[in-house]
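Assess the record.
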Amino acid sequence: MARSNQLPDTVTADVSGASNNKNVHMGMIVVLLLGHGWLAILFPMAYKPARIVITGVGLTAPNGDTLAQFRHNLLNGVAGIEKKDIRYMGECLAGVCHYDPLKYQKKKELRVGTRAGSISIYCAHEAMADSGINFAAFSKDRVGIYVGCTEHGNVETENEIYAISKFNYDTKYWSHYHNPRTVANNPAGEVSLSMGITGPAYTIGAACAAGNMGLIHAAQMLRLGEVDLAICGGISESIHTFGIYAGFKSQNALATHVDPHKASRPFDKARNGIVISEGGALYTLERLDDALARGAKIYGEIGGYCVNSDASDYVLPNPGRQAECVRKALVSAGLEAKDIHIVNTHATATPLGDIQECEAIRAVFGDGCPDTSINNTKSFIGHCMGAAGALELAGNLPSFDDLVVHPTINVDDLDPLCALPGLVLNTPKKVGRVDAILNNSFGMLGINSTLIVKRFVP
């Protein structure tokens, strides 16, 4: 029989994905009859991603162990930097947390585990309690734990080497807990053990962009339907390793000041480096429908985000790529620069790094953004590394309710190269509205992250 020149017959069918995936792409399969065979083509229909909201916050910072205490100190100029003796280096400055580790752990668990794990456990339990979720009845295999971390394992290895040095480096004195203490997934794994969570639990290594990355990844997993609840954010135990202090000192990037509370001074002419800090902030994220169904309070909605890379230097940031990251996050959120009411800067108080970030911000927000306020949280707590982005977001979330922008403190003499329109210095600023917060976090090896959180509007 001669083959017809007409278009082949077609059969169409609507399809959806797995039954436990609430956010699959809907599409249409077009099946073409071609001679002796069939060809199936999927044409995706318009996809509307699930809305993801923040329903719980748990944190510990050098100047507060609850969101209320942290926020109070940000609005009242209370920094949390102190002197700390660092092995081989003597007295240095550090942001030290003073949470109660025994609130959720026993002494034996603290001996077996790590400081990073302990911070994670504290923050995770606090976030879950704050969320109001009936966790006892929740399916533990549908919970994901995504913890951003700059580095992990240094502390344990340094401690073990120091310990066996007292015994002529005899490795029989080496702890048999060393391996589980130092694996990269340790902080998330310790939360899993503490809370009986059997879903995915792992850390996200993204240098000092990791706190933002924890939230971004969690939102993606929720939208994919991989989990129904996410515990996410970032943590740091960095003050317990002399290696990071020695590294920053070798780069001439370690802050010094006679008054510890004034040592972290982004944008100030006299800034001279980073104050290394520990801390953590973990959140509960849920799909909006689930949060509304249980009557949850909602802190804000994940609006948009972007992650990119400089691909230009091991340490020095690239303002062009940073600006690109911010612009793409705005597109992701469906917003323009003028729609952002708070920009929380990453600025770490290094001379060149602050200038380059200000260059990036100026390129995006320099003109036509009269309602945009710009602040910095590291001036209060130092650089909490993997926890930085998550903690800095937490410090700004209450602005949705109180319409106050916390300042950057310790700016006695503003560097002209860091002068930005809307920069809030030394005293809080009352504003007319806060509908969108943009949080920048950048890290070594050129990893950049920008996260936008919007006021929740039903």
